[in-house]
Task: structure prediction
Amino acid sequence: MPGPLRHLWRHHPIALSLFAAAALAALVLAVRLTLFTAYWADPEHRRQHPEPWMTPGYVAHSWHLPPDIVLRQIGLDQPPKKHRSLKDTA
Result:
């Protein structure tokens, strides 16, 4: 270990351990942010065509529509009590 790091480890092992854990957590979150940003920047992952596994709320959110319009289009007056897929709703 280099001199300053050795000094910190000898005199402040708990603080150095907590700092290392926080730095590792920040690194993991930065990597996740980068991966999610790259994934959602791809136009194919936005405005997906409705598929049977999707819920009406997911379709409304994906296409930036009011939920009541989507519900009306699939023949419902009220949203389902549980998150039901389009396949289950049909």
